[in-house]
From TrEMBL:
Keyword annotations: Signal
Organism: Bythopirellula goksoeyrii
Keyword Cell membrane annotated: no
Soluble ligand binding domain ranges (all copies): 159-203, 297-347
Taxonomic lineage: Bacteria, Pseudomonadati, Planctomycetota, Planctomycetia, Pirellulales
GO molecular function terms noted in the UniProt entry: polysaccharide transmembrane transporter activity
Name of the protein in its database record: SLBB domain protein
Stretches assigned to the Polysaccharide export protein N-terminal domain: 75-152
Amino acid sequence: MLLAELPPKGPLLTVEKSALHITWSVFLLLIGSYLAGCQSAQYRAASLPNQFRAKPSPGDVSVNMARLTGAGYDNSLIGPDDMLEITVMSGRNEEKPVPLVARVSKDGAVDVSPIGPVAVKNLDPAVASERIAKAAVERGIFIQPNITVEIKKKAVNHITVLGAVEKPGLHEVSRNSSDVVSALALAGGLTDEAGTEVEIIRQHVAKRNTYTRFADYSVEQPPTNSEEEGSVQQTAYNDLFPEGPPAAQAKALTEPADEQVARRIDLASLPNHYSRDEFHLEDRDVVMVKARKKRSIHVGGLVEKPGQFELPATEDLRMLDAIALAGGSSSLMADKVYVIRQVAGEPKPVVILASMQKAKQDGAENLLMAEGDMISIEQTPITAVYDALGKFMHLTVGVSGNSFF
């Protein structure tokens, strides 16, 4: 009789064991959370100190790139080294025009035979024609000449663009508009992998035993006399460093140029005041666009799809966005979120406590994510009980075949 009164072994006993297992799991989880909390201080997301906050995304760097262009570039104006086609008509009958091709000198003058040199720098071709005709009359060469000027070929700088651009290689950039933005435009623009750092490598500053000033192609050869050699080097040294730099930098004039001629630009943090000449490019300069470093975060805990996710390059990602990337919370009662953040200069990771419910109403609680953040929706007594009841109901319904609701 006693044996007959004992409940039969079966599904109900399995349910009881599952409930007991869940209860012990919750207990151990609570103990582990308590011990972990004793190891390091916690911060609330809404009152997080500024030194622990993530930096906003740089956004669209093309807005900042527009600031790197020179002001008022006009490629229709005549500049040094431009090739001009000049036709001089003296006004005599049956005279056949013979076009003359001449190059504009470094100082902006063009030598027109038989008139002589005439300054035409930064002039429109039509205005240059009038100036040459006026010079011919004033110098007594012609009485009423008819002169036309056309730009046959604009002077260009040969710029090498490398890195994260669509068309890397050597590009010809008009000398009047030879800047970083023009070079990048000719290279097809930035790729999706491009970062915000651009490096300009100047090739015209220093070379072994030679010194080339900007676009001047005439290179001083090292003299044989040691005394004269020292004077030439000193002249180049003074041109480069009028302020008198440290003695160690003087070696750049007699050794191959390396880091001394590199200029790094961060498009995400351009200064408010700077000289546009800093971003002007000379012949044979090199522009290197650094690839963007991929940044990621980890989302785990009570989420549908825990894993690693990449941070957007030009947009900010906040805590609720990160949880959404992981498929959202797997528990309806989940609210407590831990963000583990490694901050430079801190010996231990920073633990940040946040609430999903508060984050929906308070932007300060909806924490901005940083590279390497670990986001975890935590198990609490409420979520443990709710999830245990849910599993119990599911198992009970599965055994009986009936629903309680």
